[in-house]
Write a structure and sequence with these properties.
Layout lengths: L1 H23 L4 H28 L9 H15 L5 H15 L4 H20 L7 H51 L29 H13 L9 H6 L12 H17 L4 E8 L3 E8 L5 H5 L2 H7 L6 E3 L8 E6 L8 H5 L2 H5 L5 E6 L5 E5 L16 H15 L5 E6 L23 H25 L4 H7 L6 E6 L2 H7 L1 H14 L3
Parallel strand pairs: 7-8
Antiparallel strand pairs: 1-2, 2-4, 3-4, 5-6
Helix pairs in contact: 1-3, 2-3, 2-4, 3-6, 4-5, 5-6, 15-18, 17-18
């Protein structure tokens, strides 16, 4: 009879699952998640009231939910006894977690503790020869086996021991969580940058190590590529950025004096010509010098050190010639460098109107015009420079510009930060597939997982018959987000895990551009 009840319940669950699939398959991710949460809440209430009604009346006609509620309650009580009342509580917790989108450690702790209580109560009631509604058939069999093996006293000791373990785990993980909150993994305050060239100091922190169970759950979530709705944030986002401030540039008459001095110095060195144009950029000033006929360009190029000394410049660069022009470019650093503000670039019309989610501001060109590029069209991007040259500032600007333009359903990040101080500030944003990785061992594992995900996506692209994600997203309903891997201090990572990292990076560099 019990087997018949189980088959009936399974059949009802299959029909219900099919109906839910047909209703929800066209919905977006977050709406679907909320509706699933509401369904679980409704289901938990139905199960609980059906079970209470069954305990009070025990009749099909008097059950609040009729035959379905009666037979479902009968199945649960016959199988697990009175301890089955915990089941609707677990379903209720799952519904709350889906509605609030907060499947965090607290939810798993509470759910695990309630499941432990259910198990202890389930076997303990089986020690005593009670009616099946109390211990259930399974509880009676398990309890009898324990009593026959170690006796009633031994069984009670086992139950108390198990209850102590579950209680200890519940309390201990709570204390661990409190300690971690005292020393948080990431700062909860949003950093405010007053100047684009200055960088705030951040605490060196340790990345939390995930247990295997949590890692498996995250693996499942990563494969699903959940869609998260983020709307109405752009105006507030821009308000966090500093307003552009115009730096005072050198006066044109001063620059003309420099041009005259440049002509004189070249004349002293036996090179005749004239400066025909002066272009003032945010960082350098370019003098366009037209040499007289008969002057070899190579001769001008060899005079860079002499000209730098004559003009008292820190350094000087000669473009001989400027592509597309019959002039030589002589570039001298400005005394006062102009700060390029990120907000100014994000508000630029060409950035606002470009549809690509990977379109990023690079800075300004020699003329002071904003310059942008699309990461999706690059082979890959390597940022190099000496210490203090602004690599980290640029990297943060790149990430910020993508966060401004793309939702988590369009772009997701994998961040590797061996220094622990640059990318950890992004922990907690919905765009991250994982918290910022600090340990080199974890970085290798994550890169290997990215390689596996790349292969999965290529198989999916092949199945649909397209070459890249853009074409794929135009054909299917459930779109795939771009996955952008950001590595700070790549050289340090290569020093620690050279061969392992190199192999994965080569694979990703060769193939992970579709």
């Amino acid at each position: 009879m019990l087997a018949l009840y189980i088959l009936l319940a399974l059949g009802l669950l299959v029909l219900l699952s099919r109906a839910v699939y047909l209703v929800f398959r066209d919905m977006e991710g977050r709406k679907k998640q909320r509706l699933n949460g509401l369904l679980l809440l409704f289901l938990s209430i139905v199960i609980f009231l059906s079970m209470v009604s069954y305990l009070i009346s025990g009749s099909v006609n008097k059950n609040l939910f009729g035959p379905l509620g009666h037979y479902l309650s009968r199945l649960l009580f016959n199988a697990f006894g009175i301890s089955s009342l915990v089941i609707p509580v677990l379903v209720f917790l799952g519904g709350v977690g889906l509605l609030r989108n907060t499947f965090n450690r607290l939810f798993f702790r509470i759910g695990g503790f309630i499941t432990g209580l259910f198990f202890v109560l389930f076997i303990t009631l089986g020690y005593f020869k009670l009616p099946s509604v109390w211990s259930g058939e399974l509880g009676s069999k398990v309890g009898n086996l324990i009593v026959e093996g170690i006796g009633l006293s031994g069984g009670i000791i086992v139950s108390v021991f198990l209850l102590g373990i579950f209680t200890f785990l519940f309390i201990e993980t709570g204390f661990i969580r409190i300690k971690r909150k005292e020393k948080p993994v990431v700062s909860t305050e949003k950093p405010v940058r007053k100047k684009a060239v200055r960088r705030e100091k951040k605490k060196v922190v340790k990345k939390e190590k995930k247990d295997k169970k949590k890692q498996k759950e995250e693996d499942k979530e990563d494969k699903e590529d959940k869609v998260i709705e983020v709307t109405g944030y752009k105006e507030k986002f821009l308000s966090l950025l500093s307003e552009p401030v115009r730096e005072r540039r050198e006066e044109m008459n001063v620059l003309k004096e420099k041009a005259t001095l440049l002509e004189e110095k070249l004349r002293d060195m036996g090179v005749e010509g004239k400066v025909i144009n002066i272009i003032v950029g945010p960082v350098i000033t370019r003098f366009e010098y037209r040499p007289s006929s008969g002057v070899k360009i190579s001769r001008i190029a060899s005079l860079s050190d002499d000209l730098a000394m004559a003009l008292r410049a820190e350094k000087l660069r000669i473009l001989a010639p400027i592509p597309g022009k019959e002039v030589v470019g002589i570039e001298i650093p400005n005394r006062n460098r102009e700060i390029v503000f990120l907000k100014e670039l994000l508000l630029d019309k060409s950035f606002q109107t470009n549809p690509s989610m990977l379109y990023i501001p690079i800075g300004k060109d020699i003329t002071g015009a904003p310059y942008f590029s699309d990461i999706g069209e690059m082979p890959h991007l390597l940022v190099a420079g000496v210490t203090g040259s602004g690599k980290s500032v640029f990297l943060n600007s790149l990430i910020t510009s993508i966060l401004y333009k793309a939702t988590p359903s369009e772009v997701r990040f994998i961040m590797i930060d061996p220094k622990r101080i640059e990318l950890s500030i992004y922990n907690g944003i919905p765009h991250l597939l994982f918290p910022a990785i600090a340990e080199s061992e974890d970085a290798v594992k994550i890169l290997k997982r990215a390689e596996e995900l790349m292969e999965v996506r290529y198989r999916e692209l092949s199945r649909v018959g397209v070459r890249d994600i853009n074409a794929y997203n135009k054909k299917v309903r459930d779109k795939l987000p771009y996955i952008l891997i950001v590595v700070d201090e790549l050289a340090d990572l290569l020093l620690q895990k050279g061969r392992e990292v190199e192999r994965v990076l080569i694979r990703l560099a060769q193939k992970a551009r579709a």
